[in-house]
């Protein structure tokens, strides 16, 4: 099974480690290299990781640029695994892999589709899970391969949620990758009637109204 990976964060590295441990043929990594890495939450240096593992590496700032698309096309992957970057893939990407593109989202889809899920999970003590799904043109709406839920309680903050999600991601991959390696591709459609959506987080969303309850201020 030939796999190409796109990403930029720690969860991308966890997926890479899992692919290697399960003896997949990782054709290469397309790594996001922004001008200001400090603005990318959880940024991980995939270039150095690939050098250590002897994996081909292609940097990008625009995932839909012609040179990146051409590089990916030449690899002829069976599957593309896209984890940890905020840009939307153009339609052309979906014709590149033989089977399809697998995305990742840290909520219990179909609940919590959309932007800034970690912040909203903490604020709302919402539904969190390591969810792998088949990507399509609609954001976070594709059928699900595997979902590993995690509990969220009032003591959780962004760091504790991050750790729980990384552990859940690895557990989910250890369950699902052997199935994928057999060539099985049977994701289960999401129930769109149960979908909820998170909006983008803006600076004003971080303002505190001291008339709120102590619980809401703490969240």
Please sum up the structure shown.
With 219 residues, this protein is of the alpha/beta class. The chain is built from six helices and nine strands. The strands form two sheets. It has a seven-stranded mixed beta sheet, sandwiched between helices.
Would you write up a description of this structure?
- The protein has 219 residues and is α/β, with parallel strands linked by helices.
- The chain is built from 6 helices and 9 strands.
- The strands form 2 sheets. It has a 7-stranded mixed beta sheet with strand order 3-2-1-4-5-7-8, sandwiched between helices. It has a two-stranded parallel ribbon with strand order 6-9.
- Helix 1 packs parallel to helix 5.
- The longest helix is centred in the C-terminal third of the chain and has 24 residues.
- The model has no long low-confidence stretch (mean pLDDT 93).
């Amino acid at each position: 099974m030939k796999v190409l990976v796109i990403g930029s964060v720690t969860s991308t590295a966890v997926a890479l480690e899992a692919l290697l441990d399960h003896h997949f043929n990782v054709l290469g990594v397309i790594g996001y290299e922004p001008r200001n890495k400090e603005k990318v939450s959880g940024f991980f240096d995939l270039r150095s990781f690939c050098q250590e593992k002897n994996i081909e590496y292609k940097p990008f700032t625009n995932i839909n640029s012609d040179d990146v698309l051409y590089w990916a096309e030449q690899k002829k992957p069976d599957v593309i695994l896209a984890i940890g970057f905020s840009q939307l893939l153009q339609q052309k990407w979906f014709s590149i892999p033989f089977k399809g593109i697998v995305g990742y989202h840290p909520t219990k889809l179909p609940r919590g589709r959309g932007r800034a899920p970690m912040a909203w999970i903490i604020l709302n003590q919402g539904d969190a899970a390591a969810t792998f799904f088949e990507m399509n043109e609609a954001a976070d709406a594709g059928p699900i391969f595997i979902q590993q839920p995690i509990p969220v309680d009032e003591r959780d903050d962004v760091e504790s949620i991050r750790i729980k999600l990384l552990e859940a991601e690895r557990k989910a991959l250890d369950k699902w990758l052997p199935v994928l390696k057999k060539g099985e591709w049977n994701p289960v459609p999401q129930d769109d009637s149960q979908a909820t959506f998170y909006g983008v987080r803006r600076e004003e969303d971080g303002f505190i109204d001291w008339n709120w309850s102590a619980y809401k201020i703490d969240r």
